[in-house]
Amino acid sequence: MGGFFGVAAANDCVADLYYGTDYHSHLGTMRGGLAVVDRNGFRRSIHDISNTQFRSKFEDELARLRGRLGIGVISDYEDQPVLIGSHHGRYAIVTVGKLDNLEELVAAALERRGVHFSEMSGSEPNPTEVVAHLIDQGDTIEEGIERAQEAIQGSCSILLLTEDAVYAARDRLGRTPIALGSKPGAHAATLETCALPNLGYQVMDYLGPGEIVRLTADGVERLRPPGDRLQICGFLWVYYGYPASSYEGINVEVVRYRCGASLAGRDDVEVDLVAGIPDSGTGHAIGYANAAGIPYSRPFVKYTPTWPRSFMPQDQRVRDLVARMKLIPIREIISGKRLLFCEDSIVRGTQLKDIIQRIFEHGALEVHMRPACPPLVFGCKFLNFSRSKSELDLAARKSIQEMEGDRPTDLGSYADPDSDPYCRMVERTRERLGLNSLRYQRLEDLIAAIGLPRESVCTYCWNGVER
Ligand code: SF4
C-alpha cells in the first residue's frame, strides 16, 4: 500500500523526516525515498528496501540532506519521490493509492504531441509521474491536484514539495487517511499518526476526503475544503494500520479490542486459551480474551531480532518460507490444549494452513479460527492491497470456485452471513484449512467496532458494494 510523511519547519527538518517516514515501514516493502529543499535546491534519495530496513539504507546520507521542508515515502511499487520541472516551478511528489485507470490516463496523455513518460523496468510508466503530469494541466498546484483527483479512478493521496511549502492532498473519497501534526516551529502531514508523538508533534487535524492544504513552518492553509463523501478503507483498522495510529480520530488498537470483543460476544466454543496470529491478530485476540474471560497466551512467538518486518518478499515461495521461519511454536503451551486464534483476515490462507498444521503437530487438541473481518470475496480496486494478480487467489473465492466453478452466479450472496451459500463457503474454507471451527466477523459488527457511519467506510472487498 505505502505511506508518507511530510514536514515544514523553521529549522532543519531532516531528522523528523527520516524518523517520520520510517514509522511507515510496515506499509511497504519495495522502495524508500526522501526529498528535501533548501536554498541550494532539491536533494533526493531513493533506495531499494526489499532486503534492508529503511533506516539503515538512509542513515549514511543524512548529513548530505539539509532543508526546512521535506517529504518522504515508503513505496510498495514505484520509485518515489519524483522530481518535476514544470510551469509550477520545480517540485517533488509522492503518492499513496492505486491508479485503476493508469493505462487510459497514459493513453490519453500520449495523444498529445510532446508528452512522454519515463518507464520503469517492466516497461510500465511510473504512476506518480503520471499524477504529476495531471497536476501540471492545472493553472495552479491546487487546481492541478483537483483535476488529477477527478481524472483518477482508484485512489491517490499526495504530498507535494515546492521551494516554499509542502502540499498535502487526501484522495477524493478519503480511502487513505492524512493527519496533520504540529509542534512549535513545525507542521507535519502523515498517513500514520504513530509517527507523531515521539517526534514531539500533537495531532492537529485529520484531512477530509479530497481536502488540500499547504503547510509551512508558520501554519496550515486550507486550499480546498473536504468533500462530503467519505469512503475510508475499513481494512486499515483490521490489518494495515499500526496499533498506535488513529484515523478519523479512531485508534487502531482500540478498534481491534472491540473487534475481538464482538467475536467473543457471538461465540459459544469452549477453549483453554486465546491467541493472536502475530502481529496484526494480537489486538483482536486480546479483545476476545478479555471479553470472554479466557487466558490470553502466545503459543507462537515471533523471532524479531532478524525478522522485524511485517510484510514479505515478492516471491511467494520465499514469503511462505519467511513466514514459517519467523514464527516459533512453543510445545509446552500448545500440547493438550484447545486453542482459539484470532487473525486479522484470511487472504490466501496458504500460510495459515501451514501454521494450523504445525499447531496440531505440536499436540493441540483443537484449533479454532476467528478472523476479525468477513471473508474477502472481492479484490481491492482502490489500493495496492495484495500482490495477488487474481481475485481467485482469495481463500473465499477458492471455496466458491470449488462449489460453482469459474463463473459463480451471484457473488453478492456470499456476503450475507445468514445465507446458505455463505455457510457452505465458510465450511469449505474450514475444511481446507483443517480447522475445528471457523467463524468470521459479521460486517455490521466490524462497522460498529470502527464506530463510523456505515456509509463512510469502504467495505467493497467484503460485500462488493461500491458507493
Ligand atoms: S476494497 Fe477493502 S482493502 Fe480496498 S479500500 Fe475498500 S476496504 Fe480497503
List the topology elements.
Layout: E1 3-9, H1 14-22, E2 31-38, E3 41-48, H2 54-58, E4 69-75, E5 82-86, E6 89-99, H3 102-110, H4 127-135, H5 141-151, E7 154-161, E8 166-169, E9 179-183, E10 186-190, E11 202-206, E12 212-215, E13 220-224, E14 232-233, H6 235-240, E15 246-247, E16 250-251, H7 252-265, E17 273-276, H8 282-292, E18 300-302, H9 316-326, E19 327-329, H10 331-334, E20 338-343, H11 350-361, E21 366-371, H12 395-404, H13 420-433, E22 437-438, H14 443-450, E23 457-458, H15 460-463
Parallel strand pairs: 14-23, 17-20, 20-21, 21-22
Antiparallel strand pairs: 1-4, 1-10, 2-3, 2-4, 5-6, 6-7, 7-8, 8-12, 9-10, 9-11, 12-13, 15-16, 18-19
Helix pairs in contact: 4-5, 7-8, 7-14, 12-13
The structure holds iron/sulfur cluster.
The site of iron/sulfur cluster has 12 residues, from helix 15.
Please give a structural write-up.
With 467 residues, the chain is an alpha+beta fold. It folds into 2 domains: 3-230, 4-Layer Sandwich (Glutamine Phosphoribosylpyrophosphate, subunit 1, domain 1); 250-463, Rossmann fold (3-Layer(aba) Sandwich), CATH 3.40.50. The chain contains 15 helices and 23 strands. It has helices at residues 14-22, 54-58, 102-110, 127-135, 141-151, 235-240, 252-265, 282-292, 316-326, 331-334, 350-361, 395-404, 420-433, 443-450, 460-463; strands at 3-9, 31-38, 41-48, 69-75, 82-86, 89-99, 154-161, 166-169, 179-183, 186-190, 202-206, 212-215, 220-224, 232-233, 246-247, 250-251, 273-276, 300-302, 327-329, 338-343, 366-371, 437-438, 457-458. The strands form 6 sheets. The protein has a 7-stranded antiparallel β-sheet with strand order 3-2-4-1-10-9-11. The longest helix has 14 residues, at 252-265. The two termini are 21 Å apart. Residues 175, 233-235, 380, 382-383, 385, 458-461 line the site of iron/sulfur cluster.
